[in-house]
Specification:
2 copies of one chain form a homodimer.
Chain A: H1 3-30, H2 37-48, E1 52-53, H3 54-61, H4 65-77, E2 81-85, E3 93-97, H5 99-117, H6 125-142
Antiparallel strand pairs in A: 1-3, 2-3
Chain A binds a DNA duplex through helix 1 and helix 4.
Chain lengths: 144, 144
DNA sequence: TAAATATATTTGTCATACTAAATATTTGTA
DNA sequence: TACAAATATTTAGTATGACAAATATATTTA
């Protein structure tokens, strides 16, 4: 393959990832969700598996620990999640959603799914499969 | 298509874009380039088309104007670029590379292309075409 | 058991993304 | 021409991402 092409894919990839995030964020804002897209990712992960330590939650969300700490700080301030010290290992914290947090995830989930759907207009199941396969391959190629 | 799938693509897309950036950044750091990946994008755009206004440069790099202002500030401090007031429109600034900046882009370009290549191991020309087509379609679907 | 090592979290710093607002200048219009 | 609207850039504030270092606690090992 020609090198020239390759200098472009990273740009398109980056721009598209940004656009996906922007689109979701502006939908969130417009609908008054009062959370960021990244905060949503953390809330969703906590909803699906309660009682995660911050470390596990970070891995699950694809975020590093300092970033996660800060996002969780915000979720605490918003009353959506709680930190509980793990008495079996006092270095660790378990996180879980408050009732308000659970309600929020349950009520927003279908709307978020709708928002995410929009990206796939004019694309096929096969496109989706190719897309995820290629992304995973790239990820693994670079995951040294 | 099932909604459930769709909640995942944005995650994979985001993680892969991050990984591509991280891989490039750690290669840059390891090789002592002394610039960030985003600073590189701006330098490359300036190298390809000198005399861009900041506004045009921002569009070309896919960055917003405040972000670009700050990146350019850094490039000035590093002695790689210069701002020149456009006398025909004193609101505007033209940007161009210093000699040092030009040398930097010329010498790093082939190494950066190498770094970018790594992502495409085990993938085909057809994959590349599908990938860029799908990314562009998603971008346009969300570009309201 | 004491010291060294490992682990979970937090804090600090810098770079980037986005929004809104401020500033300077130009253009359009009454 | 004077004023309103538009444009280019910068500044400010908040959130996130990456990396290094600090802190507290656990585990391993001499």
């Amino acid at each position: 393959m020609l090198n020239e092409k390759f200098d472009r894919y990273s740009f398109i990839l980056d721009q598209t990832a940004k656009k996906v995030k922007q689109f979701a964020q502006s939908s969130f804002t417009e609908k008054g969700f009062d959370i960021t897209v990244d905060q949503w990712a953390v809330l969703k992960a906590l909803y699906e598996t309660e009682q995660l330590s911050q470390k596990d939650l970070a891995r699950r969300c694809g975020k590093d620990q300092p970033t996660l700490t800060r996002i969780v700080d915000i979720l605490l301030k918003k009353g959506l999640a709680e930190r509980v010290i793990d008495e079996t290992d006092r270095r660790s914290l378990y996180l879980h959603l408050t009732e308000e947090g659970k309600l929020k995830v349950a009520s927003l989930s279908p709307i978020v799914a709708e928002i995410r759907m929009k990206a796939w207009e004019k694309l096929t199941e096969k496109d989706f499969e190719d897309f995820t396969r290629i992304l995973n391959t790239i990820y693994n190629n670079l995951n040294v």
